[in-house]
Structures are given as structure tokens and as C-alpha cells.
TrEMBL record:
Residues 17-85 form the HTH merR-type domain. GO terms for molecular function: DNA binding. Keywords: DNA-binding. This is DNA-binding transcriptional MerR regulator. Transmembrane segments: none annotated. Signal peptide: none annotated. It comes from Streptomyces achromogenes. Gene3D superfamilies: 1.10.1660.10. Pfam families: MerR_1 (PF13411).
Amino acid sequence: MTADDTFSRLDDDDYPAYTMGRAADMLGTTQNFLRAIGEHRLITPLRSEGGHRRYSRYQLRIAARARELVDQGTPVEAACRIIILEDQLEEAQRINAEHHRSAALHTAAT
């Protein structure tokens, strides 16, 4: 692997670049918090060859959102469910907007 390959991977939001300890430090939380949101299926860290959890920047953003909710008094399980529902709503809105654009193009073409 070349240095260029390494840097391009670090630019990838989905590349599991962070160990559990580093991820917890970056978020200002505990490793137990990361385990808890994993148990509630909010994020599923990849595993290194040695079985250690590895997190991507995308996963850290989701974990940071969960931490915000928990810091506001929301139980971890509820925070995970809220984020999952927010993500589903965002996806449904994106699909709906695509259908509206497609319908508008179809109407304009006829």
C-alpha cells in the first residue's frame, strides 16, 4: 500500500480509521457508550483482524448525535431509535423529492 492509498482511505467517510479508544476520546465519551449504541444497532463498527472495533468518520458523526441526545437526558435506547427514525425520514423525503422531480419532468415533456 502506498502513502497515496493511505491518504485516500482517510478521506473516505466510511473507512474504519479509528479505534474504539480513539473514537471515545474524540467524542468525549466512554467506550461503554460506544458499546451501548452498538448494542442498540445504531452503528455497527467494523472489526480489525484481531477483532477490535474500528469506527469511520460517518459512524462518529452518528455517535456524536446520540451523545447530544443522551446529554440532554434522553435514554440511550431512545436516542438510538430517534436517530434511526430521523435517518428513515430523511431517506423518505429524498425519495419523495425524486418522485416529484420525475413527475414534473414527465408532465413538462407531455
